[in-house]
Write a structure and sequence with these properties.
4-stranded antiparallel beta sheet; transcription; 45% helix; alpha+beta; 11 helices; DNA-binding; single chain
Length: 234
């Protein structure tokens, strides 16, 4: 595998606790795969046999409820891993994965990792760490849904995309607004209202770009007590 792909893979939580030697052994059998926008990477209910690491583009994880409603569980990009918890148990994927944009992913067969695990028990710690990281991310999402207003969730989303600590900043929305709404547990019309509310905090949206007049001010709003945020006029 090319050095640049190895470097991206090592960013994934699964590999952070592994030695260079073990990581190289795992990745020696990995394969790079490309998917066009809208392509299915794996299906909900499909037998899980591989772990994926996003190299480029964006991948959506979603679940279809019995009534046919789609619930977006997460949207992942470069350096994020998918599927560890179920692949190592040979369980089924509880969600489906779809390429939101043209993307490339590294596919790692779970069995190749499990074979190495017999001689290198330390790999188990890396597996547990990756599983915990995904669980922690889901807990954070639940906390946002329960303890933040819609506008605060959008503000936090923009701050996550920003590479500025203070002052003015412009961020590019990485995927369409319908998916952003789903990722934040909102309806598209609620997202539009949230963007409108954020204008009073210096946020203006033009097509797929959001201009933030003052990152610190927006961060203060995102972290504000929700009881105060809810009572602000729209």
């Amino acid at each position: 595998m090319k050095p640049e792909l190895m470097e991206i893979a090592r960013r994934a939580t699964l590999f952070r606790g592994m030695s260079e030697e073990i990581a190289a052994q795992v990745l020696s059998q990995a394969r790079l795969r490309s998917f066009d926008r809208g392509a299915t990477i794996f299906l909900q209910g499909e037998r899980a046999s591989a772990i994926y690491i996003v190299v480029s583009g964006w991948v959506k994880l979603y679940r279809i409820a019995p009534n046919g409603t789609e619930a977006v569980v997460g949207v992942f990009t470069k350096g994020r891993s998918i599927g560890e918890a179920v692949a190592f148990r040979h369980d089924v994927y509880p969600v489906a994965a779809e390429a939101v944009t043209d993307c490339e992913v590294i596919r790692i067969e779970a069995d190749s990792v499990l074979r190495l695990l017999q001689d290198n028990p330390g790999i188990a710690v890396s597996i547990l760490a990756a599983t915990f990281a995904h669980l922690h991310g889901l807990v954070e999402q639940i906390e946002q849904l329960k303890a933040q207003t819609g506008a605060q969730r959008v503000a936090e989303f923009l701050l996550e995309l920003s590479d500025c600590r203070e002052g003015a900043c412009t961020v590019t929305l990485p995927y369409d607004k319908v998916l952003i709404a789903g990722r934040l547990g909102m309806k598209p019309e609620s997202l539009s209202r949230a963007f409108a509310k954020l204008r009073s905090f210096g946020v203006s949206v033009h097509q797929n770009h959001a201009k933030i007049a003052d990152v610190s001010r927006l961060r203060d709003y995102a972290e504000e007590d929700p009881a105060l945020a809810w009572n602000r006029p729209a």
